[in-house]
Amino acid sequence: MFIQRILSRFFLVASLYVLAVLVGVRFFLDELIFVTTPNVLTNESSSFNVKTGASEAVVRIYQAKNDDRCIVFFSGRNGGIPRYEKEIFEHLLAVGRSTFSSVTELGNNALVQINKIGACSIDKSVFVGRSLGGALAVELAVKNPPAGILVDSIAPSLAVAIRAKLKQNWFTLPAAYLPLDVFMAFNPNVETALSKLNSKIVILQGSQDQVASYDEVAGAVSSFPNVKIIEVKGANHSNAHIVGQNLYLKELDRLFENIVPPMPEI
User: Fold this and answer.
1) Residue 234: pLDDT band with limits 50, 70, 90
2) HSE of 41 in the Cβ direction (CA atoms, 13 Å)?
């Protein structure tokens, strides 16, 4: 009888645990994935806001000189623009221009506005993104195709990224083995987006990436002739853009080589 009671309680707790996880990925996935970025001091040349309903995105423009060929940068899940200004923009501004935009629903509106105000010509620009921002860059490129795309530390799908995160803690580990894909409110898939793109695409993936391994990502993109994937030796999910900085800049230069330069002013 005692063992029966223990087993009953165990199954009750297990059922509640599973229910909580599935309800979370079905009804609260937005809150889990898109966190509010703190309002911090940044050093852009100019910026503007784009609104869709109650949501709002900030587009920051880092301009070295007048040129409609831009780098449109999509940050990772936690934003951290001051960090990227130092780790990425500082180096990119020596050879190009950077524009920041974020989050799903607002992304297409932000790109339309960027094009409209003449800050950039999207079809002459390169989308750059890391982690969740890289997946967003690929997703938004379907409706707003750029000349090229450079991303690092991406996962084949959101479900893969969530599973990897769940495996990092003993309490959430069992949830990683649930059929999350079936219950998730949305599950952006890089492979699906790539099948709709003709842009030249470069992926930098760390050899020690804890979210998605190089082999995992390479397997997902191997059938696309316009996609080049490079393994960054010794890099993890957080520092592939730092460890592979020389590769990053070299591949970015190559993507810009085939873009028609702006007409000289008369």
Assistant:
1) very high
2) 0
**Cα-to-chain-centroid distance, residue 64:** 24
Instruction: For the chain, give the longest Cα–Cα distance.
Output: 92
Those residues with Cβ within 8 angstroms of residue 202's Cβ, 6 or more apart along the chain or in another chain: 148, 149, 150, 151, 227, 228, 229, 230, 251, 254, 255
Residue whose structure tokens are 């709709």: 196
**Of the ranges 7-11, 127-131, 196-200, which one carries the lowest mean pLDDT score?**
7-11
pTM of the model: 0.73
Tokens encoding 179: 């059929």
CA dihedral 211, 217, 220, 225 (to 10 degrees): 150
Find all residues with CB under 8 Å of 182, minimum gap 6, and list them. none
Q: Cα separations (Å) of 244 from 63, 145, 207?
A: 24, 26, 11
Strands 98-100 and 55-62 come out as antiparallel
Residue 256 binned pLDDT confidence (cut-offs 50, 70, 90): confident
